[in-house]
Every structure is written in structure tokens, then in C-alpha cells.
Amino acid sequence: MSWQAFVDTSLVATGHITKGAIISAAGDSAWASSTDLTISPTEMKAIADIIANNQAAKDKAFAEGLYVGGQRYVVARIEDNIYARSGRDGVAIAPSKQAIVVGIHGETQVAGNATSVVVALAEHLKGTGY
Question: Which spans of this chain does the record mark as coiled coil (predicted)?
């Protein structure tokens, strides 16, 4: 399956994610994304730094928010995964070994379901060596 197919079928087609992306764990490239989602190099690097447990990056995200696709999200939690909100919309982010899965949900979608879908894809990628 192509990276784009993972975004289209494993994220968006579930109905729990409005748009999504898979970026490199280094935060230096987007492997695939929804057509209406562009994550800038600066945004990818910030996400990767948080996932890499960079405390300064975490502190900055909590203080200033996390930007994904040009949208500012208020960070709700950072554990193994990241969850942040912008009004009633939200973003769930989960790492695999070599990639980071990003899923954005809209106000009519349930945050917990969106997070579960993102984490499930990340776990699947881990299981296949990615």
C-alpha cells in the first residue's frame, strides 16, 4: 500500500479524521497528506522535536500552541502521543519508528475516536518496521 493510500483509507475513510498526513520522524519531509493539508517544514520540525522528547519544544508548544497546516492548536497533552485543540476541532499525532501520523478531526467528530484511528495506524506502521 502506498503512503497516500494509508492517509486516504486508514485515516480519512474511517470518518473519524477530516484530513491527515504521514511525515518523517525527523520532521524533514511529508510522505503523504490529504490534498487540503500542507504541513510546513517549520511545523514538521516542531512536531518531530516534541515526539523526540525535546523539552524546549514541548514547553514552547504548551506556551504558544502547535501549528499544523497553518492552524494554531492549543496543546492538551503530550505523552507518547500529542493531542491539541482549536475550538471544537482537534489534531492527534502519534509516532511510529520512522514516521509520524497526523490526523485532524472536525467539530462533528469525536476526539477519542480520532485519536484511536491515528494511534492504530502508527502501531500498524511500527509492526511493519516503519
Answer: none
